[in-house]
Amino acid sequence: MRALTRRTVPEHLPEITRYSDEPALASPHTLIAMVKGMPQIRAGLQAACHRAYEWGPDRMPGDWALAYLAFVISRIPDIEPWYQRVRADHSLWAACDFEQVPSYRLAHLRFTEMEGMADSFEEAAAHLIQKARAKDQRVGAWWHLDASEAETHAAPQHDCTAYDDCRTAKSGRRNPRMQRVGTATAKATRQLLATMPVEGQPGSISVEGLSVIPVGASVVDHERKGRRFTSGGHWWFTRDIDAGVRAYSRGSRVVKAWHGFLHMEVIDHFTHAPLASRLIPADQQEHAAYEALFERAQRHLDAVPYLVAGDAGYSVEHVFKSNSNLGVGSVFPFRRHAGSESAHRQPTAVYDEHGIPRCRRCGGESDFVRFAVTRGKGRLWFRCRLPQTQKCQGEQSIFCDEAPRHLLPVWRIEPAYAAMRVSHQSYEHKHRDLRIQYLLAPDCLALRPKRPGMAWQQLRASAAMLIEWLRVFQRGGWGDKPAVVGPARETGGGTMVKRLLQIRSDRRAAARAPTGSDPPIVMVPPAA
Ligand SMILES: [Zn+2]
Ligand SMILES: [Zn+2]
Fold first, then answer.
1. What does the DSSP assignment read for 450-491?
2. pLDDT-based confidence at residue 194 (cuts at 50, 70, 90)
3. Is the pLDDT of residue 15 over 90?
4. Contact criterion met (CB below 8 Å) for 398 and 380
5. How far is the CA of 366 from the centre of ligand 2 (A)?
6. CB within 5 A of ion ligand 1: which residues?
7. Strand-pair partners of 333
8. What ligand has the least distance to the C-alpha of 361?
9. pLDDT of residue 336
10. Lower CB density within 10 Å: C or N end of the chain?
């Protein structure tokens, strides 16, 4: 296998997560047997379960972590209907080492007690990730970021009292609920916010005739086990303490809300499996959670990637800076800055519109020499492409920090960059797969769990990450069975590199055109 560098064109294993190729993988018995065949993983989960139940009633034999994994692949969102379906399935309970079928009450208690052990499922997945990586360095070498709305079942309810300055409450009506906006609207809002300049107020934005309005004071109501917040001049109450709120008004009236979380994922380009899978309250911006998500994926992989690709939501200075200073290349689309009206990157005296540094002596184009992190800062070395004088000779260097969103460890004209940029879209479908397979990022009544809170949804997401890796690990041939997929393919970058190089060479030709004649027309490219 060739040695990998930051500029190596990424590769992927086609169809590795197409589990429908192996119907046996859909069976809980196959899954349970997989875990039982990996004593180290099983022991870690058992230890975590025992910690979670330390104060509970006497234990009977049975492995609740295995039962929970069976629940996660059942495509049933709540414990009760799942229990009703499997209660007579003695072979399932026996496979999980139960001597008798437990009661529903006990199953509910044990599963909900697991809310605190999401990290243990991720640690088990990390064990597999690192084992796979030890056998193939392409595992985890390139990352994609993706996020999707995840609803809570709770709905905010009008909560003004007769003591508040509220006509609705004074007239004795206290009950209206905020209507739910669909996750499609919530997603459109998030994507719209991501196109706005990062700095300053986004101003009023409106989606489908609804205006997004701010949510004010928010307090936990311990007595009623929920949270109160203000929006549009009213108090509202929700029984989900963790979920974020985005309120929408029509005219001056608050009419709807989107209430829930954002499910964020780091997806491995090579295997399509998640390296991190976390929820945040829906009113937080994705980029604000970037560093924490990155660190989690880094811990699971025990390494940093060469390249990270994401959408405009991550195209902000602190994300570029953090990546470059870790030696990680950023692959994000252009996002407008406050004060800049241009929809494209603009050239400066220091770098051109693709962020490629200019020769300091003649202002001309440069060739990449190398990138390295020196004293915690990403730094580029380059060389004048067409030396004009003696002064243009020799290497020049610049810290990426000087213009973090422009100066990148892997340049925008590199095939590796193009491969990640062009393939990114296909990784956004990953969330749809996870929703179908494990009911993650629920977007409707049929899929969302009735239990409120972030921990319950996080537990399912973390367990699903382990299941993904159990399956990928086997199919990739990193366990004791031969691979059923492969060989890996180089990821195509489409025509992006060719297009950018053409633009650059046209510009050079224009610069060389003899004075007096009309210079050739040079198209300004859309920002990569
Ligand atoms: Zn009110
Ligand atoms: Zn020069």
1. SS-SHHHHHHHHHHHHHHHHHHHHHHTT-SSS--SS---EEP
2. confident
3. no
4. yes
5. 8
6. 160, 166, 168, 234
7. none
8. 2
9. 74
10. N
pLDDT at 82 over 50: yes
Could you tell me which residues come within 8 angstroms of residue 187 by beta carbon, excluding any fewer than 6 positions away?
148, 149
Query: Phi and psi of 405, rounded to 5°?
Result: -80, -10
% helix, strand, coil for the chain, step of 5: 40, 20, 45
Span 307-347, pLDDT tens digits: 999 998 899 999 999 999 999 999 999 887 766 666 677 88
Q: pLDDT tens, 503-523?
A: 888 888 887 766 544 544 455
Give the distance, in angstroms, between the CA of residue 385 and the centroid of all CA atoms in the same chain: 38
Locate the domains of the chain by residue range: 11-136+457-489, 148-262
Q: Which residues of 25-55 are buried (b: 16+ CB within 10 A; e: fewer)?
A: beebebbbebbeebeebbebbeebbeebbee
Interstrand relation of 253-268 and 142-151 (parallel, antiparallel or unpaired): antiparallel
Q: Are 190 and 328 in contact (CB under 8 A)?
A: no
What is the whole-number distance in angstroms between the Cα of residue 173 and the centre of ligand 1? 9
Q: Which residue has the tokens 């004649």?
A: 517
- Residues present in the chain in total: 528
Nearest to 32 by CA among 94, 125, 112, 121: 94
Q: CA-CA distance, 336 to 349, in Å (whole number)?
A: 19
SS3 221: strand
Which ligand has an atom closest to residue 254 CA? Answer: 1
Residue 528 predicted with pLDDT over 60: no
Q: What are the tens digits of pLDDT across the range 454-469?
A: 999 999 999 999 999 9
For residue range 318-329, what is the model confidence (pLDDT) as tens digits?
A: 999 999 999 999
Q: How far is the CA of 215 from the centre of ligand 2 (A)?
A: 54
Give the pTM. Answer: 0.92
Residue 393 Cα to ligand 2 middle (Å): 7
